[in-house]
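Backbone geometry:
***
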Amino acid sequence: MEKKKRNRFIITVSAILVILLVLIFLTNGGGDTEESIGLVMKDAVLHEEGKISLFGLIAVNPALISAFTVTGIILVFSLIVRIFVIPHFTDAPGKFQLLLEQAVGIFDGLAKSNSPHRHRFLSAYVFTAGTYIFVGTMFELLGVMVPTVSGHPIALPAPLADINGAISMGVFSYCVILSGGIAGNRFKGALNTLKDFSLPISMSFRLFGALLSGALVTELVYYYITTSFIIPIFVAVMFTMLHALIQAYVLTMLTALFYGEVSE
């Protein structure tokens, strides 16, 4: 019985691979595109051609629409959880309660370990920032299509794949670190924070570079027709999930670490 199942599985996998190879062979050389690979990569970074109309008032980068959408999703989900779920929490947690408590515990522990004397606000911020980075990065996988000002459809990218969003997150995190220095050590804490003037730049470009690299690799894989079956899906999902987890941890860890140093 086990042998029959194994043979059936091998035959199924082999048939799928053969079909994919036939499709790749039949479409090879037929993927002429209007845009060069350089233009595709440039537009993925700068979004000069793929502007979206914001309420018919101004043309903006698609990442701004993604940022508004992700913020709305997080706020609505948070309200639903706070009003309908949290009041029904029990001493014997269910799966969702356990998942939520684990997520809060991870960021709360990160804040306490780096800033044991001043961690309440820090815990709330790193949890919010980590959630926004993770959800915003995973939002890219939904492939929400919207029309550009030129009439062509475009998939909404991750909010932080735009340099403006990454700089905003880095500068805001730096302001949180500065507030911790002022609250903990007044002028000395502010001076210690301001000495690291390159910190918001490094945090912003680390976040932007990591998220953008996944988008560029996916664009590159999609561009070449011979690899446009199955492989881009695997690449996109893997890069997106890894970047969502890694960058959420890296930025919150750096914020908690520097916050603890200047407020000590």
